[in-house]
Amino acid sequence: MATAVNRRLAPGHLRLALLPAQRTSFAGPLESSCEIANCQMHMNSLKPILPKKQKTPSFQLSASGHWSTWPAFASGQTVLKSHKPCCAPGERMSSNKQALLTIPKPRYLEQLESYLRKELQYLDLTKRNSQELRLQPYREIFEFFIDNFKTYKPLLSAIKNEYEATLAHQKETIHALEPLKAMVATVSEECSQQILALQEKEKVEINMLKQEKQHLLKFIDNMKEEKSSLQTQMETLRKDFDQLRKEYQTLLEIQRETAEERDNFFTELQQAQRSCTPRPNWAKCSEVIPGGADRWGCLAEGKTSDQLVDVLLEEIGTGLLQEMNVFPGWGKGDKVPVYLRHEGEVKNKKLTKKDVVSILKDIWKQKIALEQQTGKRPVLPEFFLSYLQKKYGDTSAMEWSYTLYENMRLCPSNHVMSSFYDILTGKVGEEQYHIQNQLISNLQKELAACDPSNSGSLTSEQFRMAMREAFPLKRQDSIQELIDASRYKLDCTEELIDYKSLFKEDEEGNPEPFVAKIRSQYIREKQEYLRELRNNLGDLIEVNAEDLKAAFCTIDPDIDDQTLDTYVGLAYQVGREQTDQEVVPVDTALERLLAGDVRRVGPAAREESKTDCVEE
Predict the structure, then answer these.
(1) First and final CA of the chain: distance in angstroms?
(2) What's residue 65's pLDDT?
(3) Is 388 exposed, middle or buried (0-12, 13-18, 19+ CB in 10 A)?
(4) For the chain, what are the domain ranges?
(5) Taking a C-beta distance cutoff of 8 angstroms, is the pair 17, 28 a contact?
(6) Quick one: average pLDDT of 437-442?
(7) What is the pLDDT of residues 112-123, one digit of tens each?
(8) 251-275: per-residue pLDDT in tens?
């Protein structure tokens, strides 16, 4: 614990105490009233001798007999009234709180401040050395402190001497810089003369620029006159152009009227041809078709004359097929498909369309399951023969194979049979079958999403929105075709569409017109896409990979690199690393693309009319 250290001064001096809480302040009680009087007398004897008009400020004691430490802590500065050196810290803190006294501003300080104010008022601050005059009263005040505080006089005198020495050094430095100031003035004068010389030089240049400006103004006037002349010619030509445009519009109107007359004549010609060539009476076919008029009505519903010819040929062919007992074998040559390699006759199993469709659907089911299990896609011809061998044995496999093959060949109107036949014979790629099924599956999901109550019915607007979500790249007329097909069996006044019934099939695997329209649009859109590609290739007979890629990017700017490589590889029937060196005929490349899954990736640059699509 820190204790107060008291130091006894010479007679007439004060005893100073260094308090623990204020080590930079001085305070200490006087021992007696006699000591107070002696101290007062001693302080009066320490007053410095001032000029005649000034008096030395008297050093005052505080009313309570303490040396003042003000303004170390301003008006809040306090000292202890009584203090026991040997008390414990806790006791000292409690006693300190009770002994705090507020110390007022000392009288001596007030006298010094008053003296300083008066001295500053007497000074004439308009003189050149006003700052030195202001410093003199502060020096005197500092000397008063030095003379009155004898104990600190050496330290304070040393401080004062250092400041005085520094000021003297600064004065010497200033005097030393006086020549430099004169030199700066001389240099400034020289620079001013140089600036004047430059200004004279600039006047000459300015005069030259003014002359050049006059020349340019004359040139501009000439250009304006030329421009005015040219404008008179931009006007004459515009009048001529307007006249030509009017004539062109007139010719276009004449051409349009001529085209309308041509179309009208063509329509009249077609009507005349129809009237001259009567349409066949297709109702007569019901007399020779098994099932009579009812079955023929179902077969002929919604079909054109050309399609009815196919239906009639199909019925005749299947009828003859049922009468055959055996098929002639194709032999075992390398060009014979693996599922038809047989010498001699093969027994006809005489299957119905329903039986054939059931077997083909089961083959697809088993093949897809094997693909999911192994992660590989087996070739359909080999899998077709393997399936028959496992199910019917090696001996009967060829009988089933020939029977299924002949039924598929003679029934192009049945989607299950015709699509299986086209893939089996290599006419189209297997991807088409899976992609079409995927498109139909996605549409079913979109329709179900618009029917949260699972009622099975949607309004026309809901149905249209679902179609837009499932087929974002379809044209408006294609969407309308699908909507019309969905309302095929509905009355025109009915609002709700039973969308679940649109995906049903009959016992022979024939879908509703709606699904058939989706599949036909897929083929048509692919043909349109490849027709654009052919037109972009121009008159090329052969095409390399780079030209084919450029053509795809032109007609389908949104196509990505992976899809582009797939299409090019499909056209060249080689891997990606070999396409750069291949050149194939354009027709061959288009046939290969037509057989695969080739579709537009982004929206078309322009929508072709529905008429163009039908004609194609």
Answers:
(1) 112
(2) 38
(3) buried
(4) 5-151, 152-278, 324-422, 433-615
(5) yes
(6) 93
(7) 888 888 888 888
(8) 888 888 888 888 788 877 777 766 6
Dist CA 161 CA 159 (whole Å): 5
DSSP one-letter code for 428: S
Is residue 283 very low, low, confident or very high in pLDDT (cuts 50, 70, 90)?
confident
- Take residue 493 and report the two structure tokens written for it: 């006044």
Q: Spell 428-450 as b/e; 16+ CB within 10 A means b.
A: bbbbbbeebeebbeebbebbeee
Q: Are 409 and 401 within 8 A, CB to CB?
A: no
pLDDT band at 277 (very low <50, low <70, confident <90, very high): low
Encoded tokens for 562: 């992976």
The mean predicted confidence, pLDDT, of the chain is 78
Collapse the DSSP code of 609 into the 3-class scheme (helix H, G, I; strand E, B; otherwise coil) and give the result.
coil
Confidence of residue 63 (pLDDT cuts 50, 70, 90): very low
| Mean pLDDT value across residues 97-108 | 60
CA distance 350 to 363: 19
Q: How far apart are CA 540 and CA 526, in angstroms?
A: 21
Q: Label residue 493 by pLDDT band (50, 70, 90).
A: low
* pLDDT for 95 beyond 60: no
Is the bond preceding 71 in cis, omega lying within 30 degrees of 0?
A: yes
| DSSP helix/strand/coil, 73 | coil
H-helix or E-strand spanning residue 457: strand 457-458
CB atoms within 10 A of CB 593: 22
Residue-wise DSSP of 216-246: HHHHHHHHHHHHHHHHHHHHHHHHHHHHHHH
SS3 labels along 271-327: HHHHHHCCCCCHHHHHHCCCCHHHHHHHHHCCCCHHHHHHHHHHHHHHHHHHHCCEE
278: left (phi over 0), alpha (psi -120 to 50) or beta: beta
Question: Long-range contacts: 529-537, Cβ < 8 Å, 24+?
Answer: 529/555, 529/556, 529/598, 529/599, 529/600, 530/590, 530/593, 530/594, 530/598, 531/616, 533/590, 533/593, 534/586, 534/590, 537/586
Q: Residue 346 in 3-state DSSP?
A: strand
Mean pLDDT over residues 82-98, rounded? Answer: 46
What would the two tokens of residue 155 be? 């330290």
Angle, to 10 degrees, between the axis of helix 460-470 and the axis of helix 476-486? 130
**pLDDT given at position 111:** 83
CA gap 408, 402 in Å, rounded: 10
d(CA 402, CA 421) in angstroms, rounded, equals 12
Greatest extent of the chain over all pairs of C-alpha atoms, in Å = 159
Q: Are strands 542-544 and 583-585 parallel, antiparallel or unpaired?
A: antiparallel
Q: Could you tell me the pTM of the whole model?
A: 0.53
- pLDDT band of residue 295 (cuts 50, 70, 90) is confident
Alpha helices in 425-539 (DSSP H): 430-449, 460-470, 476-486, 513-537
List, in order, residues 6 or more apart from 490 with CB less than 8 Å away.
497
E-strand ranges in 4-116 read 5-7, 16-18, 78-80, 100-102
**Token duo for residue 141:** 């005040």
Question: Is the pLDDT higher at 455 or at 101?
Answer: 455
